[in-house]
Amino acid sequence: MAKLLEVNNLHTRFKVRNGYLHAVNGVSFSLDKGEMLGVVGESGCGKSVSMMSLIRLLPPAAQITEGEVLLDGEDITHASVSRVNAIRGSKVGMIFQDPMTSLNPFMKIGDQLIEGIVYHKKITKADALQQAAKYLKMVGISNAEHRLNEYPHQLSGGMRQRVMIAMALLNEPSLVIADEPTTALDVTIQAQIVELVKSLREKLNMSIIWITHDLSLLAGMVDRIMVMYGGYVVEEAVLDDIYKSPLHPYTIGLLKSIPSLKTEAGSRLPSIPGAPPNLFSQPTGCPFAPRCTYRVDRCQSEVPALTAVPGETGERPHRVACWVDMRGKGVKQ
Ligand SMILES: Nc1ncnc2c1ncn2[C@@H]1O[C@H](COP(=O)(O)OP(=O)(O)OP(=O)(O)O)[C@@H](O)[C@H]1O
Ligand SMILES: [Mg+2]
């Protein structure tokens, strides 16, 4: 399959009062055209900052210090600001967590939807509104022409999230980055949005990066999963390999904390003991070592590199950053 995105050794840090907070520490991955990747990890592990770094949508205190991002072969990391602005919105669409903070409460839905296409595609307002209505229908909003004249507060939370999706898709981007797009919604609406994105992806052949802290949400939805911890990618493999044969102790811990049909009502699910790492200093060993029950001496002194091993399903290599061979339970050389 053709590659759409290639990210090599990306580092992003924040300038804070007494030094630097190292949010992204050498993230590398790629994404094929039409592929869907899930990015998971606990709060603060660098999911949002790494994905925002891809399109340089970062606050002023952030600096990308190393690495490169290639979208369709074009280097975004070193492109001009005007070029990156053109890429955002035309080639890349974003869906954020909270539609109420992303939509302007004083602007009609139609006007907000077409702002981007009028700017990027230079089409007339009437044509753009027609296009916007088409996308509102596609995301399941009935009476779309009428909704274009309404304001965000006149829509329900689920409808506002659908408007955000329509807005992200309107320019027919080749890549959509969805950052916890369903967290603020109730479970039924959440399931509807997941189904909607799945069907739109097939229809439009987009590549999607879906960020979540909920590993169970990704089942049956994504092709591959990338697990992050402390600003590092600690594991990445196709969905079945992550669910059925996880190789990183952190991923194993995350999977154990998902309720299954066998979980007895009222019983406590195991959580991973300990706290996420301090990102002010860079670790001398594996960032997960302090919380890891499989820890060996080497884990405290050397950061394990993300290394490819054959995947169980044979579809793609399985990448893992761990000194312990979780298949054989020995220590890697
Ligand atoms: N504007 C900022 N200034 C300083 N530090 C920041 C800023 N934004 C994020 N960080 C820090 O960068 C690290 C990574 O944050 P990020 O938002 O990527 O986490 P996340 O994995 O998306 O978490 P969540 O699941 O809570 O959204 C965190 O330690 C966070 O505190
Ligand atoms: Mg986030």
TrEMBL record:
One of its GO terms (molecular function) is ATP binding. It comes from the Bacteria. SUPFAM superfamilies: P-loop containing nucleoside triphosphate hydrolases (SSF52540). GO terms for cellular component: plasma membrane. Residues 5-255 form the ABC transporter domain. It is found in: Cell inner membrane. GO terms for biological process: peptide transport; transmembrane transport. It is a peripheral membrane protein. Keywords: ATP-binding, Cell membrane, Membrane, Nucleotide-binding, Transport. Pfam families: ABC_tran (PF00005), oligo_HPY (PF08352). Belongs to the ABC transporter superfamily. This is Peptide ABC transporter ATP-binding protein. The lineage of its organism: Bacteria, Pseudomonadati, Pseudomonadota, Alphaproteobacteria, Hyphomicrobiales.
